[in-house]
Amino acid sequence: MNWLNSQAFTLFGQHIIWSDMAGNILGLITLALGWRRSLWTWPVQFLSGLVLFAAFYGHLAGSAGKQAVVMAVALYGWWQWQRTKGRSEDGHITPRFATWPERGAMIAAAAAGTVAVALLFKAYPTLSWDPWPDAYIFVGTIVAMYAQAKGMVEFWFAWLLVDLVGVPLNFANGYAFSGFVYVIYGALVLWGMRDWWLRSRRSPQPVLEGAPA
Q1: Which residues of 104-129 are buried (b: 16+ CB within 10 A; e: fewer)?
Q2: Cα–Cα distance for residue pair 173/152, rounded to 1 Å
Q3: What are the counts of helices (DSSP H) followed by strands (DSSP E) for the chain?
Q4: pLDDT in tens, 183-192
Q5: pTM recorded for the entire structure
Q6: CB under 8 Å, gap of 24 or more: what pairs does 130-138 form?
């Protein structure tokens, strides 16, 4: 898999490697499919994680480990959407807003997870290039994917919060190409957020497990 870490081309003075380019492209496709509420969102997300795992495995154990977690959550998302698809008239999942307890749980998990992962990264410097922002982006991504798996509109807000750190961080560190891709992510997030928001208001809300009918 050494070719994944070889240079594809040079852009904006940066040496773009195949794995970075493939991961960014697959990430954009994943967001677009998520906007359309397509079940293919999750296989593409899994493939993106697999490409990056193959690129990092053997020399960047921390990055490879993070992609393994992303792939596991992608499998959960596919299972969840496969189990609940068909609840709306178009055959896809029905977006809904999270309940306040769900929001509180996700915020608490994001905060605690960011602190725990950042401390882990600080204890083992080889796992991360910059512990706190890296932990924030990683945990935020997992929380966003979980909310997406549950069909929550809030997953778009979580992605937006990740982008708000990812965009300036990439530009500040000289990664203009990745920063530009994150800007496109941001645009897709805003459009997807609007679409899911409107659908959640038009569609009848699904009954949550354990809730009275």
Answers
A1: eebeeebeebbeebbeebeeeeebbe
A2: 33
A3: 7, 2
A4: 787 788 888 8
A5: 0.81
A6: 130/169, 133/165, 133/169, 136/162, 136/165, 137/162, 137/165, 137/166, 137/169, 138/66
